[in-house]
Amino acid sequence: MRGAARRGRFAARMMAAGMMAALASPGVSARAWADAPILVEQRPLSFAPLARKIVPAVVNIAVTQDVDEGPTKVKVPPALRGTPFEKQFRERMRSKREQMLGAGSGFIIDPSGVIVTNNHVVGAADKITVSLSDGTELQAKLVGSDELTDIAVIQVKTDKPLPFVTWGDSRKMDVGDWILAAGNPFGLGSSVTAGIISARGRDIGAGPFDDFLQLDAPINPGNSGGPSFDMRGQVVALNTAIVSPTGGSVGIGFGIPSEIVQPIVDQLRKSGHIDRGWLGVTLEDRPGGGVSIVGIDKPGPALQAGLKPGDLVNAVNGDHVDSARGLIRAVAAASPGSAVQLRIQRKGKAMDIAVVVGRRPEDNNG
Asked: What is the mean pLDDT of residues 128-136?
């Protein structure tokens, strides 16, 4: 025993000596360790104050859709499968087969009852019921929706001002920043989850305007249409999609950045729809940067402006573009009938061409 103790003390002395030798070596110094900057100074001890602030403005959304009568099999929406509400849903449907139920989330952005959610939550609904955090249920109407970005606005009538949240600036959010996601997962009711922004600018093939924030906060079916907040309690993303082989959260969720959502919501509130600019071209990304025009629609704005297959587009209204998606988004942001200035290269020669954009047809990518 004494020998073992001596060997243990000897080993401890040797480890300490080795550490001191390492600190004394030219490559490592105690001062270098001490001078290394602290990259993460603090983390929240609790999200409770933030949750108390934002939860009253986050709503649960239930939708019904008329279906044909007949002895059809009861179809349970994915958001309710495996939850305590599945049995209740089946019993309700056996006695009332003319309606089909879906569930989602939303958030109030105006005390008068204006609510933002996803188009895929409410777009096909015949009846929309909104449940507030205090249990109040209100009927809502669709104000406007945009299928290409999956954004919708609904409105409830209320006799008193409702709690609401404000927009944050998603452009100021970095990979690694904390976010708090809120919504109605699996139809269970108001819930919050915490995580970070995992990546920016994700294209998941949902549409030509994909530019998602990737989030690792648990987001599940029923969270669609809910918000993600920064640590100030401002909305920086509209939770929209998940990647999951099981149907539940595996830590990969996607939200539309507020910089995209806010202007679309503003336009939907004004007109109920989105008018986008259109060039009438087929595009291809060019290795090394720029976008090549490989086809011209007849008739179309590009043909009328004199653009030709083989033209290389470098900028729109002075802003550089380096991908077909970037060019489509820049042109789509222009109002139909307005002019955009394209900087192109044709056979090695740079030139500017003004194009009066048209109105984007449905299901068009140029």
From this structure: 92
